[in-house]
Amino acid sequence: MSTLLSRIEQEYPKFSKSHKKIADFILNDYQKAAYYTAAKLGEETDISESTVVRFAAQLGFEGFPEFQAALRDDIKGKLTTLQRMEVASFKMLDEDVLEKVMRSDRDAIKETLANVSHDDFKAAAAAINDAERIYILGVRSAAPLANFMNFYLKMVYDNVVLITSASSSEEFENIFKIRKEDVCIAISFPRYSKQVVTTLEYAKEKSAKIIAVTDSDSSPIAPLATYLLKAKSNMASFTDSLVAPLSLINALIVEATIGKRDEVLGTFAELESIWDKYDVYDKTEDSDYE
């Protein structure tokens, strides 16, 4: 799938002289260009702000903010950790970090809800319930999301396999039995792991259903998906904000387990008895903890 940067390269010969100057700056310093206003980008290239806006329009965008958003999504997987730190320093300049980050997370959840495919969401939940085995694949920054999903699904399903190994050979050892009757839930966000892509390619070869939880159509796991669930991920310094993906995964767990309501109620009635018997949870009603 064509990315914005590759589109700029392809269209470059058709650009005017001034548009080529803008394109040169973006291609050579995209981590800065993605966070410059049209006025700032014009200042850096010695081009008028209106020409910068026309450059975005020539690429098919309604305005510069839409172009900028697309460029930010395009480069998330390309930035090194050092570049992420530099971008974050620029973004957070003279900002209240707490408010900036939490507002960004709130907006990411709203954007995810507005754009996620409800059909794929429903079909993914049904595929989980119909599967003989459920494989959950997530490494590096996505590993906590995979662990969260594994923790709750294992309370309801007996056939859950968690794959979070840092070793590609161990990943294949865990998934080599996958078949068309199974489902693989793959979670991947920038910077994308090559291990996840190669493991998912193997699962697709075996005709397993694939639920891809990722950030965009340009994600390397998106073309491999049977059901594509897109969640907005933000870049907060060198860390990835995965609040919206976690919320989407939480919703998927709820949707799937609602389809097994009677089993879920029976399971948790038994678990509550065990937790009570072995004093797993604190029963203090008026806790003095602060």
CATH architect. name of the largest domain: 3-Layer(aba) Sandwich
Approximate shape? elongated
Q: Count the strands?
A: 7
Q: Quickly name the level 1 CATH class of the largest domain.
A: Alpha Beta
Task: Give the N-terminus to C-terminus distance in angstroms.
Answer: 51 Å
Strand content: 5-15%
What is the count of distinct domains? 2
**Parts with pLDDT < 50 across at least 5 consecutive residues:** 286-290
CATH topology of the largest domain: Rossmann fold
Spatially, the strands of the biggest sheet line up as: 2-1-3-4-5
Largest sheet: 5 strands, parallel
Describe this structure in a few short sentences:
This protein is α/β, with parallel strands linked by helices. It has 14 helices and seven strands. The chain folds into two domains: about 1-75, Arc Repressor Mutant, subunit A, CATH 1.10.10; about 110-275, Rossmann fold.
Structure description:
The chain is α/β, with parallel strands linked by helices and 290 residues long. The chain folds into two domains: 1-75, Winged helix-like DNA-binding domain superfamily/Winged helix DNA-binding domain (Arc Repressor Mutant, subunit A, Orthogonal Bundle); 109-276, Rossmann fold (3-Layer(aba) Sandwich). The chain is 57% helix and 10% strand. It is built from 14 helices and seven strands. Helix 10 (143-156) runs parallel beside helix 13. The termini are far apart. Residues 286-290 have low confidence and may be disordered.
